[in-house]
């Protein structure tokens, strides 16, 4: 299921499921979105600090659910941090089925994006947090436009060098996000996969958050789940400014062990590039020729 694309003048709703914010934090973000010709609506509880580190899980979920029921809001946009997994039992998935709209986030937002897709079948978008609109660059804005506005993205547009760690071609449904959140959510009841379907897994992490040993542990958790039998390929995003040979070695072993294509790039994640990956979209990954093609629904 696909939500309708954005049109100029449409309203973008901003919430904060994963961290505390202040009006000053979001002033430039809101101005940046409005400068691109869109309206902005902020969650009524956006600036609450109920727990100190965040508003309560029900307050944060109420903001999300209210954006879903608001007919003027076409895109629900939120960033990362910690704690989005706390909201999952309180999201009104039935309302999302009735009122499908665009959802975009990254990092800790992984938990919500995957839960919405697996609970409702709605395609969600990984890679675009609100903070990019403070001073969005040409690459990120073209990603935003091609996926969410024009809806004409057919080929993944790279802005970095790809490294094929296991050559091959695979097809499947795109699913993934931030490595820790994906591993935590897997088989939780909020990230359930279809047993007869193949998935292209995309993951990202960063050295400022996780050592290679930690990333390896998250990958091992995924490998030890039954989901690994449905993974047809892996694309890993930016981990560090300088190429980590340890991480590349771990990813190469992942591909060899499971006989699936694996590639690394700097096009998405916590680095300078912010490509968008549609969670739930069918795709074809060719690691030898370094391409990812999105298929029509």
Automatic annotation (TrEMBL):
The active site is at residues 107, 204, 270. The keyword Protease applies. One of its GO terms (molecular function) is carboxypeptidase activity. Residues 171-284 form the LD-carboxypeptidase C-terminal domain. It comes from Hungatella effluvii. This is Muramoyltetrapeptide carboxypeptidase. Belongs to the peptidase S66 family. SUPFAM superfamilies: Class I glutamine amidotransferase-like (SSF52317), LD-carboxypeptidase A C-terminal domain-like (SSF141986).
